[in-house]
């Protein structure tokens, strides 16, 4: 299995330099369709997205990314993910992800 | 709240008692599961926090390095170096079972490479590209670790929420309702028994 990165050209270029072959440089409008295509690719083990792109996706797609058993989806960015923090707060009752 | 669909008979009372006991046993087991999941969650949380802050830091470094490489070599230079790469990181994605939840276990190969393994010529490119490639290789290594840990954490949270909902439903709705219905049927049966007793007494006296 391989890694895949989807996002802006500047975002995916670095991953290409690290040897990630399945890099897809797309703009925001085509992002969701490309992510859906990658999800259907059986050879992708990890999908890398930027935190901002992850936020720009529709709720349905985000839910699909969270629940899909494969590929494992990870958001990378300069900021930490707020979504995970919220979930922890809801499940445990306290903000533990400080 | 008394459940109206049950008839006040002795057999229904026995059936309800059995259901309540099963519900109580289930509630106890689910509470134990919830506690075990929370312990597991706390174990993963510390690692996840460390990995996430590491990832953010490494992303910042990698972005800065590729920006320098782009400024010196140009976007085309960086792209052509990337196209020269022959080795790609490969993953082995397995699953492991944690308290009934399937979490990923990822093994990666060929993430870090030496300069000669990268495929582009040393003379044709500047060391800035090497630095950027190295920073991104470090980042990819951390991405793989973070993907495994964060997904485990996400699945644990989802399961904790699910178990919490079930525990609450049993504790605050199902068990109290069954208890109330049981009490109602018991009272009704006692009332019928008293009625019968009085009737018999009246017969006896006449």
Topology:
The complex is a heterodimer of chains A (98) and B (206).
Chain A: E1 2-7, H1 9-17, E2 22-25, H2 28-40, E3 44-50, H3 51-56, H4 59-67, E4 72-76, H5 82-92
Chain B: H1 10-83, E1 90-98, E2 101-109, H2 127-205
Helix pairs in contact in B: 1-2
Task: Describe it.
The complex is a heterodimer of chains A (98) and B (206). Chain A is of the alpha/beta class and 98 residues long. Chain A has one domain (2-92): ATPase, V1 complex, subunit F (Rossmann fold, 3-Layer(aba) Sandwich), CATH 3.40.50. Chain A has helices spanning 9-17, 28-40, 51-56, 59-67, 82-92; strands at 2-7, 22-25, 44-50, 72-76. Chain A has a four-stranded parallel β-sheet, with helices on both faces. Chain A is globular, with a radius of gyration of 14 Å. In chain B, 74% of the residues lie in helices and 9% in strands. Chain B has two helices and two strands, in the order αββα. Chain B has helices at residues 10-83, 127-205, and strands at 90-98, 101-109. In chain B, strands 1-2 form a two-stranded antiparallel ribbon. In chain B, a hairpin with a 2-residue loop joins strand 1 (90-98) and strand 2 (101-109). In chain B, helix 1 (10-83) runs antiparallel to helix 2 (127-205). The longest helix of chain B is centred in the C-terminal third of the chain and has 79 residues, at 127-205. The mean pLDDT of chain B is 87.
